[in-house]
Amino acid sequence: MRTRRADFDYGNTRLRARKGRLLRDADYERLLGEDIEGLLRGLADTPYAPAGDPAVRGRERLHRAVRFHLGRALEEMRSFYSGRARVLVDALLSRFDIQNVITVMRARAHPETTVEDALAALVPVGWLVEPLANEVLRPHELAGVVDVLATRMPDPEQGKVLRAALHEYERTDDLAALERAVLTDHAARLAEQLADTGKAGATLRRFGQREIDEHNLVVALRLRDAIASGAQDTAPPAEAALPGGAIPAATLATVVPAPAAAVVTTIGRLAGGIWQTALERWLATGDLHALQRSLERAAIADVTALFVNGDPLAIDIPLAYTTALQVEARNLRLLGEAAVRGIPVEDVRAGLVWPEGRA
Question: pLDDT category, 173, cuts 50, 70, 90?
Answer without folding.
Answer: very high
